[in-house]
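Narrative of activities, Objective 1.

The group set out to show that a structural description can be obtained from nothing but a protein's sequence at a throughput compatible with the screening campaign. Below is one input-output pair from the validation batch, recorded exactly as produced.
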Amino acid sequence: MTAAAAGKDSPSSSTVRGTPLLKDELDIVIPTIRNLDFLEMWRPFFQPYHLIVVQDGDPSKTIRVPEGFDYELYNRNDIKRILGPKAACISFKDSACRCFGYMVSKKKYIYTIDDDCFVAKDPSGNEINALEQHISNLLTPSTPYFFNTLYDPYREGTDFVRGYPFSLREGTPTVVSHGLWLNIPDYDAATQLVKPRERNTRYVDAVLTIPRGTLFPMCGMNLAFDRELIGSAMYFGLMGDGQPIGRYDDMWAGWCIKVICDHLRLGVKTGLPYIWHSKASNPFVNLRKEYKGIFWQEELIPFFQTVVLPKDCTTVHKCYIELSKQVREKLGKIDPYFTKLADAMVTWIEAWDELNPSGTAAEMVNGSSNGK
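Output recorded for this entry:
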C-alpha cells in the first residue's frame, strides 16, 4: 500500500445516524487519478466504512484523501508488486483498474463509485443515502423468474400482486445492485454527440429485478455486489492503455455476471439508488475508445444471449473458466483481442485464488443452486 490508513472517526466529523449497516462487512472501492475531495459530501454516509482507493495513471502522483477516512490506496507499482506477472490482467489508464480493489478486499460486499459522482436529492429535496439503498437491495431477494408489476415486492409499502405464483415468492439471492444517475446520463459517444445538452432529470422511484435471460448494460459508477457470491466474476476485462477498446469494461463484466447469475439462480436488481453524475466525458475521446466496440457488440450480444454453461458448472469459478473458453473459441474469430481477453479472464481467476486462498462462497455454490 502506498498510503497508510488515515485517522478514523475524528471527533469533528459528521457521522451516520444510528449504527451503519454492514459497517464491518462492506468495502467502498474508488478508482481515481485525482484528489478525492468529492468524499467530503459523502462523509455522512461513507465515513464509517473502509475505502479501497485504486490509483490509475502516474504512480508517482500523490492522491489526497480527506482526513478522517479509513482507507488503503494502491497504485500501479503496488499492483505489480502484489500480483507479479499476473498484474497484466489489470487494466491501466482506464477505470477498469477498480476490479483490483475487488480482489484485495476481504469483505462480503463491495460498493464502487466514480469520483465524479455526487450525492443526489430525491424529489422532496432530501439527500439520498445511495449506500443504504444498495444494501437494502442486496439484503432482499430478487424475482428473476416472474415479473411483479409492482416492481420489487420486498420494498416497504408493496408486495406481490394477485396472480404471482406462491411457489416463487421466496425469490433468489440478490448478488448485484445496479444504481442509476441524475444529471449526466451514461450515454455512448454517438448519443453524446447527437444530444450534447441532454440531462436526466427523471427520478423513478422503483427497483426492478432484471429477468432471467435478459442482458443489460451494466454501469460501474454506482454499483454494489455480493463479493462472496459473485466477486470472482466481476472482472472488468482488458481496457485502456495498450488495448484496442475502452469504455466497455463494466458492460463486459455485466454480460458475464448476468449469464452466470441466470445459470446459478442468482438475482440482479436495477433502479434506485440515484447519484448525481456531475460531468460529461469528452465525446470525441470516447468515440476513439468505443469505435471498435460499436461494431463488435453486434456480435458480442448474440454470443452472450446464446451461450450455454454446462450443468457441471456449479460454482462461479467454474462458470467463469468455461465462459473464458467459449470467448476464446467463438469471439476469438472476430479479433485476436478476444483471445487475449480470454487468457486474461483465466489469469484473473488465478490471481483471485492467490489472494483469496481460503475459498469463498463463489467457489462453493453447489448444484442445489443450479436449476435450469
